[in-house]
Amino acid sequence: MGDEEPAARRRSDAERNRAKILAAARTAFVDEALDGVSMAEVARRAGVGMATLYRNFPGRRELLETLFTDEVDGLCVAATAGEGESPVAALTVWLHRFAAFLSSKHRLAAELLKHTDVSDPVFGGRDRVLDAGRPLLAAAQAARQVRTDLSIEQVLDLVLAVATINGEDEYIGPILDTALDGLRSPGTGGA
């Protein structure tokens, strides 16, 4: 029994360290250009040693893959949260999250491509995102709040097109809102 408690504590310490590393990497990659952030800087920001960093992530690629996968996972989970008072509001909240995901994902994907190529399974999240968003769109369409002649692929392509516009959130936000207003069924009001 004496070995169980220290092992459990080691596991929880390891999980905390991993979470600290991921949080530090996310923050560092937002604060600076991705290619300007070294593994040593991530370890410093996380408050862990290099051995701990490399025990969790043997290289930069593994760290980037985990960050990228976590972003896809978070987006898919957010689709099931149903945030919003109506089906169209839930869809709109999720599409805004998708737009934010595209912003951060683009930087992560570009850096990750330096270590792999687009055929890598880590980039296979598109189907998962489509599957996550499909019920939100279907619910809004069933409630006659959103046009029924659009597929989830078309809606996400619309958001993608807006998200690729160069500019700050303050500039892009109103454009995205206008585009999303165009999804509404004729005769429906605001969310």
CATH architecture of the largest domain: Orthogonal Bundle
Enumerate how many helices there are, as a single number: 8
Number of domains: 2
Strand content: under 5%
Low-confidence stretches: none
Task: Describe the protein's architecture and organization.
Helices cover 70% and strands 0% of the residues. The chain has helices at 4-31, 39-46, 50-56, 60-81, 87-112, 126-142, 152-163, 169-181. The radius of gyration is 20 Å and the shape is elongated. The chain starts with a helix and ends in a 10-residue tail after the last helix. The relative contact order is 0.10. The mean pLDDT is 84. This is TetR/AcrR family transcriptional regulator. Residues 38-57 bind DNA.
Short description:
It comes from Streptomyces reniochalinae. With 191 residues, this protein is mainly α.
Layout of helices and strands:
Layout: H1 4-31, H2 39-46, H3 50-56, H4 60-81, H5 87-112, H6 126-142, H7 152-163, H8 169-181
Helix pairs in contact: 1-2, 4-5, 4-6, 5-6, 5-7, 7-8
How would you describe this structure in keywords?
0% strand, mainly alpha, Arc Repressor Mutant, subunit A, 2 domains, 191 residues, Tetracycline Repressor, domain 2
